[in-house]
UniProtKB/TrEMBL annotation:
Residues 201-324 form the Trafficking protein particle complex subunit 13 middle domain. It comes from Pteropus vampyrus. Residues 39-197 form the Trafficking protein particle complex subunit 13 N-terminal domain. Belongs to the TRAPPC13 family. GO terms for cellular component: TRAPPIII protein complex. This is Trafficking protein particle complex subunit 13. Part of the multisubunit TRAPP (transport protein particle) complex. Residues 337-432 form the Trafficking protein particle complex subunit 13 C-terminal domain.
Length: 441
């Protein structure tokens, strides 16, 4: 490909410089305080941005038409088109943007500041200061706060500033210049350059709370810009109580392959879904009362590239879920077979947790048979005292008298202290098959 230039200098006003550069005549929106008198120095501010690929509008026709092959030959002779693919709108050359362009949240704003001595005098003690004013703060972007001793005629002071944009809305670049004339008079002036920062992505999240204390996060990321994005990284940084596993890849022939394909481009207005599973760490999983009340899950870190490799990065605020309500006592299944034989006993393991942080419970277990599920054992047995935020595991035996997918129901826990009964139905489901079919363990 043939490249014209790497960077574009977009100037606030139409001027010429002694250095070799291309200056656009498209002005930045500017509000200038009217000077009380003629200043010896001139301030110019330009935005630095990379060029874009040249686009053309192909004009072609069929050979039976009047022009024949004339239009196609003109496109083949055009140096800006791609050889062998002349009808594509995308060309080989680079072009300089003719406007200020869009600035999106998470990108880096770069600007070139030049102070030129237009007079025939030597100016002393020149101090150039660049601040960025947002709706919430004012940032100093100057590379150096030291004053330049003197500036001769037709000489200039140059500075390049960079800032990673972290706020949406109106931004004002305030450039102030102070200097001293040969006569000892102190002079000062400043200019304001206003620009808008837009939102590049729309992020929506959904939480799913599993019975095993796992939390599933679905993140929907939509590209709301007008150009495609290369999604370099989308990761979840969990809170200190969780470990995270990404569910956005599959194992193919021993190699982990992303579910989005090899080209992870996100076209304008397209949406992509990312899925993550958060599991509580071992030291917190044993404390049911703590995990129950955790609402802060973590934050998403998104990195993308646009056009010719300009990088952008966004990090969301802490994502919060609705804490699940388990009540005072929680019953969960630790182990259960997927398939069992008809009228043959099978075993399950239940975990009973006292979710209260203050009260000790004295529990009694009752087992009620249903039309298809029959419990094996003594109903109404004492489980003993269960202290706050503690758990106990219980092995139970049951059998099914009906084939098919059967729901395990009929467990009752009674707290003898408060005379309160907790009912647990549809705890899980198990597939019951004929005993003639061998069940793989």
């Amino acid at each position: 490909m043939r490249f014209c230039i790497n960077y574009k200098f977009q100037c606030a006003t139409s001027v010429s410089f002694t250095r070799q550069c291309i200056v656009s005549k498209v002005p930045i929106k500017m509000e200038v305080n009217p000077p009380k008198q003629e200043h010896l120095l001139a301030l110019k501010v330009m935005r630095l941005t990379k060029p874009t690929l040249f686009t053309n509008i192909p004009v072609t026709c069929e050979e039976k038409d009047l022009p024949g092959d004339l239009f196609n030959q003109l496109m083949r002779d055009d140096p800006s088109t791609v050889n062998g693919a002349e009808i594509l709108m995308l060309g080989e050359m680079l072009t300089l943007p003719q406007n200020f362009g869009n600035i999106f949240l998470g990108e880096t704003f770069s600007s070139y500041i030049s102070v030129h001595n237009d007079s025939n005098q030597v100016v002393k003690d020149i101090l150039v200061k660049a601040d960025l004013q947002t709706s919430s703060q004012r940032l100093n972007l100057s590379a150096s706060n030291a004053a330049v001793a003197e500036l001769k005629p037709d000489c200039c002071i140059d500075d390049v500033i960079h800032h990673e944009v972290k706020e949406i809305g109106t931004h004002i670049l305030v450039c102030a210049v102070s200097y001293t004339t040969q006569g000892g008079e102190k002079m000062y002036f400043r200019k304001f350059f206003k620009f808008q920062v837009l939102k590049p992505l729309d992020v929506k999240t959904k939480f799913y709370n599993a019975e095993t204390d796992e939390v599933f996060l679905e993140a929907q990321i939509q590209n709301i810009t007008t150009s495609p994005m290369f999604m370099e990284k989308v990761s979840l940084e969990p809170s200190i109580m969780y470990n995270v596993a990404e569910l956005n890849s599959v194992n193919q022939a021993g190699e982990c392959v992303t579910t989005f394909g090899t080209r992870t481009y996100l076209q304008p207005m397209d949406t992509r879904q990312y899925l993550y599973c958060l599991k509580p760490k071992k030291e917190f999983a044993e404390k049911a009362g703590i995990i129950k009340g955790v609402t802060v899950i973590g934050k998403l870190d998104i990195v993308w590239k646009t056009n010719l490799g300009e990088r952008g990065r966004l990090q969301t605020s802490q994502l919060q879920r609705m804490a699940p309500g388990y009540g005072d006592v929680r019953l969960s299944l630790e182990a259960i077979p997927d398939t069992v034989n008809l009228e043959e006993p099978f075993h399950i393991t239940c975990k009973i947790t006292n979710c209260s942080s203050e009260r000790t419970m004295d529990l009694v277990l009752e087992m009620c048979n249903t039309n298809s599920i029959h419990w094996c054992g003594i109903s109404g047995r004492q489980l003993g005292k269960l202290h706050p935020s503690s758990s106990l595991c219980l092995a139970l035996t049951l059998l099914s008298s009906v084939q098919g997918l059967q729901s395990i129901s009929g467990l009752r826990l009674t707290d003898t202290f408060l005379k309160r009964t907790y009912e647990y139905d549809d705890i899980a489901q198990v597939c019951v098959v004929s005993s003639a079919i061998k069940v793989e363990s």
